[in-house]
Input
Amino acid sequence: MSDVILEARDVHKVYGGVRALNGLSLSIRQGEIHCVVGPNGAGKSTFFKTLIGVERPTTGQIIYKGEDVTRLPAFRRARRGLSVKFQNISLFAELTGLQNLFVPLRRNHPKSEIPARAAAVLARVGLAGTEDLPVRYLSHGQQQWLSIGLSIAADPDLLLLDEPAAGLSVEETARTADLIRHLNASGMTVIVIEHDMGFIRSLRARTSVLHYGRLFAQGEFDEIAANEEVRRIYLGAA
Ligand SMILES: Nc1ncnc2c1ncn2[C@@H]1O[C@H](COP(=O)(O)OP(=O)(O)O)[C@@H](O)[C@H]1O
Ligand SMILES: [Mg+2]
Output
């Protein structure tokens, strides 16, 4: 059996005349944390959208768990264990964290189990003790973690995070990195899409660098950080 959970094969995405993705090939291994970085306009968000199924590649394939999902709608990928947390959080501000979690849990679990499951998810993302607080009283970081909680409520195999540390304080950023490592240690494969090198430095994970819609470099974080060519595209294009 292959140890690859997700693979992009020669993916192109053209918007009008703009080549957002230009022959991107990239594999994500089962069980890893994988960071995808690149300067603005490199194609990160477009890649993310083709992975989750909200955009279709112009040509090329997305293979998930050995199956060609290129044309599979997003909700069907979700049912196969692929979950996503978008950058913009959408929580019900007047409801508590627990109540927010009821929404995704209701899809898969009997009513009687939901409160206990919601409490467990809340604890898993480090929010035990905030059960009864309306979400608008949570800090920005806590709202981000709750939003990760919503994405993991259905126990996904693969979690995609879009800039999970955007707008967070230094301490919240460190806690977010801990949370990601913790989820990964429980068996979840995690892909982190990120512009900022600072955050992924703390994850020290295998990293792919996108540039002009292609894979520009790939390796362990330290190799990537030491790569002169990578430094050059960041300085030139950021
Ligand atoms: N919906 C769209 N329509 C036209 N051009 C787009 C669209 N989305 C992205 N692009 C272009 O594709 C390129 C890659 O964009 P994007 O994937 O957002 O890069 P990144 O997330 O790395 O900053 C950019 O040149 C961007 O302007
Ligand atoms: Mg982007």
Remarks:
- The chain has a mean pLDDT of 93.
